[in-house]
Amino acid sequence: MVRRSDVSDLSETFRRKTVLVTGGAGSIGTNLVKALATFEVKRIVVFDNLSSAHEWNIPRGPKIHFLRGDVTQDDDLQAAFKEHPQIVYHLAAHFANQNSVDHPELDLMVNGMGTLKVLEHASRVGVDRFIYASSGCGIYGPDTPMPFTEEYVSTQLYTPYQVTKMLGELYTSMFHSLYDLPVVNPRFFNSYGPGEVPGKYRNVIPNFFYWAMNGKSLPITGTGEETRDFAYVGDIVSGLLACAHYDEAIGEAINLATGREIRIADLAEWVNELTGNSAGVIFKERRDWDKKPRLLASIDKARKILKYEPKVEFQDGLREVHRWFKKNWDHISKSAEF
What would the pLDDT profile of 284-324 be if each residue is shown by its tens digit? Predict the structure, then answer.
């Protein structure tokens, strides 16, 4: 979702530019690619190894080129960077907490070595802007005061994913300081929206919709009083576009969230209502690594630097997810892996 008042300002930023989106087949990536395609870009390179995404979900268009490749492989990255992109969105990641606990070495390779390699290639070709998808859910620890503000980070981390997302920020900051690479570190909070296929290691909202549409009870890990700061993917995309536009964002870490808490119990109730699911909920033990029963971000810095203002109300966003699930149910039911 690109706010129309912003389009004229952004259009010059992307005009005749080649944009590389690593992890471009995921939910945020596909929505970002759709938004980029509305500008007079020269080319959009969607780079993804499809380890947790699906080719059917990638937008099509004359400006969009899909390149299957892995961020840990130099040959693949050379193919991606041979077109000398001016703007790089590095969204590719080994996602997320439980996946990293189960596969810590792969997490380090993708989120650590992969990010380092992408930065090296970007620095070599001299990109105009490098935007690294960081994680507000990972950077801030249980000892961080809420609402989370960008100056507070924590070394009290509980999963490899949290460690490697912070490592990515350290690498981007180093490349900015040492090589003058113009980097921006947006920190995402619980992004949701059309385009995310459910699965064992995916987010709660697509998984709730999948289970609800199959008539199953929705599993809540904890009491249901836990909260998250859910940000609609269209609002996240608006923030990402602004990260490439405003020079004031260079060298900064910036929360992209809503500044609003949603109880997981309320989320489950609304999903069941939307889908007509009468199976209710079941409660399970909270996972050992889940040390933050509440998440709430400050978006004051994003408002100031990016002119960022989330527009989508949470229940409206849920309705958009439901519509996407119904439209793509055949693909989703075949692709979901639990």
Answer: 999 999 989 999 999 999 999 999 999 999 999 999 999 99
Which 3 state secondary structure label does DSSP give 246? Answer: coil
Is 124 in a helix, a strand, or coil? helix
Q: Are 191 and 27 in contact (CB under 8 A)?
A: yes
CATH number at 4-191+232-259+294-312: 3.40.50.720
Number of residues that make up the chain:
338
- Report the distance separating Cα 220 and Cα 229, nearest Å: 17
**Coil, helix or strand at residue 23:** coil
- For 21-80, write each residue's pLDDT tens digit: 999 999 999 999 999 999 999 999 999 999 999 999 999 999 999 999 999 999 999 999
Residue among 28, 34, 68 at smallest CA distance from 48: 68
Q: How many helices (H) and strands (E) does the chain have?
A: 14, 14
Domain boundaries, the chain: 4-191+232-259+294-312
Which runs of consecutive H residues, i.e. helices, occur in 180-299? 204-213, 233-245, 264-275
Cis? peptide before 96, omega within 30° of 0: yes
> 226 forms bridges with which residues in the sheet?
none
Assess whether pLDDT exceeds 50 at residue 278.
yes
Contacts of residue 165, defined as CB under 8 A and 6 or more positions apart, other chains included, come to 93, 111, 134, 135, 138, 139
Alpha-carbon distance 33 to 82, whole Å? 19
CA distance 31 to 254: 20
The C-alpha R_g of the chain, in whole angstroms, comes to: 19
Predicted confidence (pLDDT) per residue in 158-199, tens digit: 999 999 999 999 999 999 999 999 999 999 999 999 999 999
Q: Specify whether the backbone of 208 is left (phi greater than 0), alpha (psi in -120 to 50) or beta.
A: alpha
C-alpha to C-alpha distance for 334 and 256, rounded to whole angstroms: 32
Chain mean pLDDT for the chain:
96
